[in-house]
Specification:
The structure holds two protein chains of two kinds. Chain A contains no helices and five strands. Chain A has strands at residues 15-23, 26-30, 36-40, 52-56, 59-63. A five-stranded antiparallel sheet of chain A has the order 3-2-1-4-5, with no helix packed on it. Chain B folds into three domains: 5-63 and 174-247, Rossmann fold (3-Layer(aba) Sandwich); 68-171 and 287-302, HypD, alpha/beta domain 2 (Rossmann fold); 318-365, no CATH class. Chain B has helices at residues 10-23, 37-45, 65-68, 71-81, 104-109, 120-129, 146-159, 174-182, 195-201, 207-213, 224-240, 259-268, 299-302, 318-322, 354-361, and strands spanning 30-36, 56-63, 86-90, 114-116, 134-141, 164-170, 190-194, 217-220, 245-247, 269-271, 274-277, 281-284, 288-290. In chain B, the strands form four sheets. Chain B has a five-stranded parallel sheet. In chain B, strands 4-3-5-6 form a four-stranded parallel sheet, sandwiched between helices. In chain B, helix 1 (10-23) packs parallel to helix 11 (224-240), helix 2 packs parallel to helix 15 (354-361) and helix 7 (146-159) packs across helix 12. The chains are: A mainly beta, B alpha/beta. At the A-B interface, strand 4 and strand 5 of A face helix 2, helix 6, helix 7, helix 9 and helix 12 of B.
């Protein structure tokens, strides 16, 4: 889930994604470039559909302030 | 996309550019280190050097994880991958980093089972689906990437997945900054600090830069306007004689970071006594290893590794690039023997590496040492 011009090893390519569904410790999010991804939400839970999350390497790192 | 489009406005960029021109003192150079490779990438992708006054010199820092991994650790990963029962997983760019015995991609071509993943959680899934194999995740990255490894380890422990382990090479951002600040001869006026690392660790870990070294710090994000805005904030501090840690990335970064991410890291990892950084040498307490109670998931405990130290190729000047001592184009093999297609040094491998960023976006700026345009 990263811009092809970026290297995922760099933590600073984390992306903002919107939650569409939550199931246990995993959320399905929509990505800025399109498509969906499943991310672990242990570090930011609880989250709800519509929330914007900063995601990187398969997990959500933080919830964005509106 | 909210939080993206509004940070790429050309009109606002022009406004910030005009503001920057009023904040510099004509003829007085200001060297600002952008710590993170993501910032370097943005600066060259969006041509920000052309939007700042000539007095401002962006100095590229050590915040590219691929670029600082020593060759010996790559050889250790290759040794792991060559064990017949092992599936070695890692992020894509890590597969191209040359070690003393070539890269993981070359090991794969020789028959090793090396697979690219986007998340350590994918590696854990692979372990669940291949119970007869040993799945090892070659973990690299700063404090932004380390929480994903921590969450994966906690899930592996909770589910008692025994054929999964981590070859941990996670590093921390504070110690290399201190090493750079302690290095003789390098004059910096301020730091553009990494936004997403700070999402995890907060802004407090940069306080020592202000307190002990008298250099201002601005934590910032990765869109072009973020970096221009952070540059104005740094220049304003310099002009007003202030020296503070400021947070430009308030939409995500909190003063104390993400306590749950820090707790996950503390539960799974601890500091190594010392770790080798490419270009910076051995730095005390600068990297993470798995805690002893997670030894079952620690590849360094479960497998024999060569653990050799390998000198960098003599022609490569990545070490000097990584500490900002020279610009990428000043390296004697930049763009000739060393290109993204055939990298000699790590800075040319990752797209966030300073050399690759210059090569991909800044060819017109390429100059030889004597200043003649290439």
């Amino acid at each position: 889930m990263t811009d092809p011009g970026h290297c995922i090893t760099c933590g600073d390519v984390a992306e903002v994604a919107r939650v569409v569904e939550v199931a246990g410790d995993t959320a399905t999010v929509t990505l800025p470039q399109g498509g969906r991804e499943r991310v672990g939400i242990e570090l930011v839970a609880p989250v709800a559909p519509g929330d914007l999350l900063l995601c990187h390497a398969g997990i959500a790192l933080e919830r964005l302030s509106a | 996309m909210k939080f993206v489009d509004e940070f790429r406005s050309g009109e606002l960029a022009a406004k910030l550019s005009r503001e920057l021109a009023t904040l510099v003192e004509p003829g007085r150079p200001r060297k600002l280190m952008e710590v993170c490779g993501g910032h370097t990438h943005t600066i060259y992708k969006h041509g920000l050097e052309d939007l700042v006054p000539p007095e401002i010199d962006f100095v590229h820092g050590p915040g590219c994880p691929v670029c600082v991994i020593p060759m010996g650790r790559v050889d250790d990963a290759i040794a792991l991958a060559e064990q017949p029962e092992v599936i070695l997983t890692t992020f894509g760019d890590m597969m191209r980093v040359p070690g003393g015995r070539g890269s993981l991609l070359e090991a794969k071509a020789r028959g090793a089972d090396v697979r690219m993943v986007y998340s350590p959680l994918d590696a854990l899934d692979l372990a669940r689906r291949n119970p007869a194999r040993e799945v090892v995740f070659f973990a690299i990255g700063f404090e932004t990437t380390a929480p994903a490894t921590a969450v994966t380890l906690l899930r592996a422990r909770a589910e008692d997945v025994r054929n999964f382990s981590v070859f941990c090479n996670h590093v921390t951002i504070g110690p290399p900054l201190k090493a750079i600040l302690d290095s003789p001869g390098l004059q910096l006026d301020g730091f553009i600090a990494p936004g997403h690392v700070s999402t995890v660790i907060g802004t407090r870990p940069y306080d020592f830069i202000v307190r002990d070294y008298g250099k201002p710090v601005v934590v910032t994000a990765f869109e072009p306007l973020d970096i221009l805005h952070a540059t104005t904030m740094l220049l304003r501090q310099l002009r007003e004689g202030r020296c503070e840690v400021e947070n430009q990335y308030t939409r995500v970064v909190r003063r104390d970071g993400n306590p749950r991410a820090l707790a996950a890291l503390a539960e799974t990892m601890e500091l190594r006594d010392t770790f080798e950084w490419r270009g910076l040498g051995w730095i005390k307490a600068s990297a993470l290893k798995l805690r002893p109670e997670l030894a079952r998931w620690d590849a360094e405990h479960r497998f024999e590794l060569p653990g050799a130290r390998i000198d960098d190729p003599k022609a490569c000047q990545c070490g000097e690039v990584l500490v900002g001592a020279i610009k990428p184009w000043e390296c004697r093999v930049f763009g000739t023997a060393c290109t993204p297609e055939r990298p000699i040094g790590t800075c040319m491998v990752s797209s966030e590496g300073a050399c690759a960023a210059y090569y991909n976006y800044g060819r017109r700026l390429v100059r030889r040492r004597d200043g003649v345009p290439a």
